[in-house]
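Notes from the 1:1 (GR / supervisor)

We went over the backlog. Supervisor wanted to see one worked example end to end before approving the batch request, so GR pasted a single chain during the call. The sequence is below; no edits were made to it. Supervisor asked that the structure be written out right there so they could see what the output format looks like.
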Amino acid sequence: MERESGHNKAENVENVMEEVGEGETNMMEEEGEPEKSLSNHAGKNTFGKESIPLEKEVLADDDDEEIQSWPKNKTNIGYQVKEEYRPILRKIIYKHGDIAKHCLTDFMDIRSALLDRIYGIISEFDTKDLSKIKETDLKSKIAVVDGIRKMKVDVEWLHKRLTDVLEARELFMQSGMLKDKKDTNKKLIEESEKALEQVSEKLRAIRDENVVCKDNLARAKEESARIARVVGFAKNKVQRFLHCSVVDGLI
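Structure output shown during the call:
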């Protein structure tokens, strides 16, 4: 009976973990960085995990010495977490309380696996700034946290932070592209201003030439009118003596 119960429990852990991790599977395959199955965390008590009861540690101080003196041998039922996650667990308990208190499952193995997943995400991003986080990795972690949140684990604070980080990363990437566009646009403005100045200079030259042409035309017209008057006067003069005697009418 005990073996059968243990087998059923392991199956329950794997089923829940598969549902929680379903959102990140495709993203991680595309990125080429497959992660370990959550069921390995739930079904095995390796990697230095210990049974740590939440209830008795919530009000403990958060200094380094007490973190190091975290109780190592507890016989009462508690969450199974990795050794390296114990400081994170303690900080979360201190600030947010027992986040798995209202979890949909009562199986401690499953709750521990969910908490392990949360601590793993926090630990992974703890040493990364915005420029070092990949978008696909961040989105996959948000999907995982969302799945854990649907299990009624209180991770709204973590989900919101990761969502904010994703939005900030998108703005960060956009700022880089906008800077490139700004530099390109600045160069275009400089070239356009230079071209406009050249055109303006040509236009001023054309305007000056236009004035000169108008003055020349006006003088030419005046000269033409003067010449026409001279020609008309001379023609009258010549025609008077052209076909008759120059002394005609004198006697």
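Supervisor's comment: Confidence is low (pLDDT under 50) at residues 1-6, 25-77.
Batch request approved.
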